[in-house]
Amino acid sequence: MATTVQSVSIFGMIAGLIGVMALVAVNALFLIWMERKVSAHMQLRPGPMEVGWHGAIQTIADALKLLGKELITPREVDRPVYLAAPIVIFLPVLVSFLVIPFSQNLIIRDMNVGVLLILSFAALTVLAILMAGWASNNKYAVFGAIRSVAQNVAYEIPLLITLMSVILMVGSFRLTDIVAAQSRVWFILVQPVAFILYIICATAETNRAPFDLPEAESELVAGFHTEYSGMRFALFFLAEYTNMFIVAALATIFFLGGWRGPFLPGVIWFLIKVYAIIFLIMWFRWTFPRVRFDQLITLSWKILIPLSLANLIITAFVLKLV
Amino acid sequence: MSLLIASLSFYLVVAATVVGAVIAVAARNIFHNVLGLALSLIGVAGLFLYLNSPFVALMQILIYVGAITIAICFAIMLSQPLYLPAPPRNPLKIQGAAFGAGLVFIFLGLLTRQTLWTPAAERVNDWSITTIGHYLLNQYVVIFELISLLLLVAMLGAIVTARGGRGSA
Predict the structure, then answer these.
(1) Quick check: A173 and B129 CB within 8 A?
(2) Which is the most buried residue in A17, A37, A245, A265, by most CB within 10 A?
(3) Average pLDDT for residues A128-138, to the nearest whole number?
């Protein structure tokens, strides 16, 4: 009996891993197409139209092109660190999928420290960006890395505090408990300030415009991944788009009731909400101009952190009184 | 099969800890030292996971790898440029460091021999979030507050040091 249980869990882990890999790949392909289409339509252009229906398989063609490209390693780079950085940025992204509940039953491992798992592995991304920038031995890359680290450190604090006010209401770090607590009303209605703070911080954490200073094309070429080519560059890209999926999934779980919704099955609802949030983040990119670096840091330390702390304290008071 | 995987991952984690620690001490490039430290800390997090305390393991990654290592990187950016030749190793300092580390090692070794370990199966209290929370806010509340006071002092010290800015230095 014990052996069957064991084999089932190993089988489950392998199936989960394959599922996550497939999801990461398909999600990135879809998001890149979606980004092109959204940006195009916001600028009254049609976007990619040639490959497939409305350019639907354009990204597959691009991915094949990237696969065929030569991997160039500049002579002056710090070789071991340079080669390790794309791997280090991609691994934590995969780990985060371990705890995301796509529906009632579709979850690889329902850990009681689910949120912390995602947040702590997200912290590794900063280290990977620093490794990439530093090892590239290129001033633009180093600048991009330094900016990215300053930004990520500043925005991680309000992000954690904001999520903490929801966790305080639920009393659990388990993601399924947080979804279950929203059976009557979504937390976006109870904690609207927290939702706005979270979306701002999530946009900054994923280095998206208007907070895309680490890879500001007009100033820094491509920022920390300037010296990477071919599939190595693609890994950074893949990690960035998967990170977008993860922050949107967290927003869905924390504020939009997770997989809950009428008529349609849970997974569909979950994905609809996730991609709605991603659409919102893309919308920001094509409507807001990029902020200046001092504005970016000031916004976090002087506005977002006090606001999120105030939100947390008010939440605690209300919970104590009610 | 799963026992094999478990022991394999255990040795992997131990190897990461030890190799990371060696890189952290021996490498000549200061950035490699930091990365070695990060690897070692991730290994320690793996050891916590192996001891069935995922909460402590994740906190280890979040605080030590995510925050402390990054803070050290910021300190490196403020230190002298890397293209300058590094000063030669001072043998006296190496001996002193080895002596200090040896003392800590002996102390910890004696401590582990003195402690009565209970195997995991017999242990009643699991080191979950609830247990740690209760400990921190009941039994060890004074120590907890003292640590936060220490952090406050460090923060004030950093502000005082940085207040002059670069111009007045």
Answers:
(1) yes
(2) A245
(3) 83
- Tell me if B58 and A116 make a contact (CB, 8 A cut-off): yes
Q: Which of A5, A13, A116 to substitute to test the interface with B, most B CBs within 10 Å? A: A116
pTM over 0.80: yes
Q: Are A259 and A266 in contact (CB under 8 A)?
A: yes
Contacting residues of B for A146, CB less than 8 Å apart: 77
C-alpha distances (whole Å) from B68 to each of A127, A301, B38, B74, B75 are 11, 19, 9, 10, 11
Number of Cβ within a 10 Å radius of residue A3: 9
pLDDT higher than 80, residue A171: yes
ipTM of this model?
Answer: 0.77
The pLDDT value recorded for residue A218 is: 67
Residue B94 pLDDT exceeds 60: yes
Tens of pLDDT along A40-57? 888 888 878 787 788 778
**CA–CA dist B45, A155 (Å, integer):** 24
Environment class of A37 (CB within 10 Å of its CB; exposed 0-12, middle 13-18, buried 19+): buried
Q: What tokens were used for A6? A: 């064991």
CB A39 within 8 A of CB A282: yes
Q: Which residues of A touch B65 (CB under 8 A)?
A: 120, 123-124, 127
Q: Name which of B38, B62, B128 is nearest A120 (Cβ-Cβ).
A: B62
Q: In this predicted structure, what is the pLDDT of residue A5? A: 41
